[in-house]
Design a protein that fits this description.
The protein has 93 residues and is mostly helical. Helix content is 52%, strand content 0%. The longest helix has 18 residues, at 20-37. The termini are far apart.
């Protein structure tokens, strides 16, 4: 760096642009709503079919989770016969 020139200040990331807990709640509601609308009556059998735990699926639908692995969410969306774009097209602000 040339003498006398100041280093440009870097852009810093910040949190607080949206409600994380609210977003997880929206995911939960969307999973349950779409599962039922697609004719999958039992979350247990749906979970079995897409090879995720029934306990996990119960938590995801009830909103009793702090985090969800991307791969798990993608399995659920795929099992619902949707693309991620379709899944997130409704119910999210």
């Amino acid at each position: 760096m040339e003498k006398g020139k100041k280093k440009a200040e870097r852009k810093r990331a910040a949190l607080g642009h949206f409600d994380h807990d609210g977003f997880l709640e929206q995911i939960s509601k969307r999973i349950k709503k779409v599962r039922k609308a697609k004719g999958f009556k039992s979350y247990e059998l749906f979970a079995y079919d897409i090879e995720i735990s029934r306990a996990g699926m119960s938590k995801y639908e009830a909103g009793n989770f702090d985090d969800i692995r991307m791969r798990t969410l993608l399995k659920i969306i795929d099992g619902l016969e949707m693309s991620p774009r379709e899944f997130f097209s409704e119910g999210f602000d």
